[in-house]
Specification:
9-stranded antiparallel beta sheet; DNA Polymerase III, Chain A, domain 2; alpha+beta; 8-stranded antiparallel beta sheet; elongated; 6 helices; single chain
Amino acid sequence: MRLKISRGELLTGFQRVQGVVEKRNTMPILSNILFEAKGDQVVLFATDLEIGIRGSYKAEVLQPGGVTVSARKMYEIIRELPEGPVTITSGDNHAVGIEAGKSEFKVLGLPPQEFPAMPAVDSDPRMPVDRKTLSDLIRKTIFAAGDNNARYILNGILVTLFMKDKKRALRFVGTDGHRLAVIERELPDGKGKGVAQEQTAIVPKKAALEIKKLLDENEEPPEIGLSKNQMIFQRGSLLLLARLMEGSYPNYQQVIPKENDKRVMVKKTELEGALRRVSILSREKTSAIKLALEPGAITLSTSNPDMGEAKETIEAKFEKEGLTTGFNARYLLDILSGLDSEEVLLEFKDALSPCLVRQPGDPDYLCVVMPMRV
């Protein structure tokens, strides 16, 4: 194999696969990337057996061929190269030569035959989705999904394509058992034609994060598809396949409080700032803080026998009988990071009930955070 390619094209390709490449050494080949040169392009493919990402990049192919090479080492090398053309070659022993300017590298590779094959792409219809809408759906729910949660299914996001007021809509749900985020967005007219009336899938959190990165790269419109076993994300020649999680997602509707009649309106930036400052002295494991509601104000406080105490009062629009409750400050901060409004609406029932967090003017987005004893 021998080819010439611009450093920028190559860097883009290797940047995209870094989050997918398997970091653990259970199968050394999975820390590599499949590098194939044919026609007038290079195809890069990486997988961890749960997620696969494939992209094509324009190149001058002098001799077609393929090899697998360390994704991390190649990325580190390309990142440090000067702008300009890069010549890449591979020999009979699968070593990869890299030349750019006055720099020369030789990286040991593995036979391409040992690399897992790209899964077959289901032919189910795909639908165009507004890039910003899909990015927001992920951003506003992914923080609530679990990280290595003991309940495996909570490490994913529940995605539902359904009919709403005779229009197609997408609903994303994330929860780790301590907090919950639910958002719905209608698809523009005509989007999703040919797709079954309602489809539900549980997408791994890692896959959602990788899709979010790709969405934020540029404004090229994407397409998504849901089948029985996989989610397909496509944008131009870039394709990401994610194996769907198997299992039953919990009935999240039953934890959304219906009778929270104590409503507090507060400025988002003031609440964020107070949470960050007060939580500095909270216990590291729990980030526990107290919220004391009183007419016209919220007082945040924490007490840590190993560190000290902190307290701050901020203005709030609240007129009912007060209450004192406790929450994980980090959970509240995660929720606030997903809100785009200047104010935030907090709804309480009593000290031991979940808090409902809303963005004023957006009835289709809500978050729930469970209380804790402080």
